[in-house]
Amino acid sequence: MRIDFVTIFPRMFDPLIAEGVIARGVKQGLLDVKAWDLRDYTTDKHRSTDDEAYGGGPGMVMLAEPVLRCVEAIGGGHIVLTSPQGRRFDQNIARELAAKEWVVFLCGRYEGFDHRVIEALQPDEISIGDFVVSGGELPAMLMADAIGRMVEGVVGNTGSVEEDSFFKGLLDYPHYTRPEELRGMRVPDVLLSGHHEKIRKWRKEQALRATRERRPDLLEKAELDKEAKKMMGWDE
Ligand code: SAH
Question: Domains in the chain, start-ordered, CATH in brackets?
Answer without folding.
Answer: 2-148 (3.40.1280.10), 163-231 (1.10.1270.20)
